Amino acid sequence: MAKLKRSEEEVEKLFKRLYIRLTRDKSILFYGTLFNEETLDKTYSSELRHKFKNNKIISEYYKRTKGLLESRIVENAARGKINPVFAMFNLKNNYNWQDKREIKQQNDGKMEIVINKK
């Protein structure tokens, strides 16, 4: 675990650098891609976030990064730029989306099926 010897300031800079790279490169759709480009494993992110869990700068850059990626996946799927099956798989596994099915029967005999994000 020698990797965790980074200082808090170095980790703040890392998360800022990842966020800036994401804002500049619209092709990135997966959080792990950012860490791969830093030659780091994406599990390293959770270890660092746990180690510096009270650091508001790190938390804010992480939330912004994840939020931007989530929006990017939804928008690209809606525009047909990425496979919707991949998008749903990614959203369910990385952003806590889930299928919610409600069946509403109306008095006129019509049935409405609603699928929502959690």
What does this entry look like structurally?
There is one protein chain. The protein has five helices and two strands, in the order H-H-H-H-H-E-E. The chain has one domain (7-116). The protein has helices at 8-24, 31-37, 43-51, 56-78, 84-94; strands at 100-105, 111-116. Strand 1 (100-105) and strand 2 form a beta hairpin. A two-stranded antiparallel ribbon has the order 1-2. Helix content is 57%, strand content 10%. The protein is elongated and about 65 Å long. The protein is mainly alpha-helical and 118 residues long. Helix 1 (8-24) runs parallel beside helix 4 and helix 4 (56-78) runs antiparallel to helix 5.
Q: Radius of gyration, rounded?
A: 18 Å
Total of DSSP H or I helical runs spanning 4+ residues: 5
Strand content: 5-15%
Please state the overall shape, judged from the principal axes of the Cα atoms. elongated
**Percent of residues in helical segments?**
55-70%
Which residue ranges are poorly predicted, with pLDDT under 50 across at least 5 consecutive positions?
Answer: none
* Quantity of strands, as a count: 2
Order of helices and strands: HHHHHEE
Overall number of domains: 1
Q: What's the end-to-end separation, in Å?
A: 36 Å
The neighbouring-strand order within the major sheet is 1-2
Question: Can you give the mean pLDDT?
Answer: 86
How does the helix and strand content classify structurally? mainly alpha
- Largest sheet: number of strands, sense, barrel closure: 2 strands, antiparallel
